[in-house]
Predict the 3D structure of the following.
Amino acid sequence: MKLNLKKMTALAITVSIALILSFIESRIPAFVAIPGIKVGLANIAVIFTLYKLGAKEAALVSVLRVILVSLLFGSPVSFIYSLTGAILSFTVMILLKRFTSLATVTVSVSGGVMHNIGQIIAASFMLSTNVVLYYLPFLLLSGTIAGIVIGVASALIVKRVKLDIG
């Protein structure tokens, strides 16, 4: 991945926006009493990067976001959950974007759902139990709803923001 100054600046701004959105989301009280349910505002930055700069750049933004958010606002456990969810989510989003003509919203919903599945997988291994699978229906519903919200916002931003990174 060769980075010119404009692309590096765009990536730095995108990572910064992801961190800001993560911080804002960490300050929003939970709407429900089920652990792990979040909107995933920082995914707007990842999806934007995926559609405007490319898959490698979006992977970089996603991983940097997980690392920095975990260091600044999280814990080692939240890092493992976030990283597992982010890897699975991003893998599915990149495959859907690359090999289908699905809308940004559909790619986002798929990413949101897969993020929650990744977190359930991590929790099952870390806790050595399958009891956490009972959370899955709630997380799938929340991932779908959040994916729609993030997908609509991302699609609007991708459409309206022009990048000249030459």
Remarks:
- The CA atoms of residues 119 and 126 lie 10 Å apart.
- The chain has one domain: 5-25+38-160.
- DSSP finds six helices and no strands in the chain.
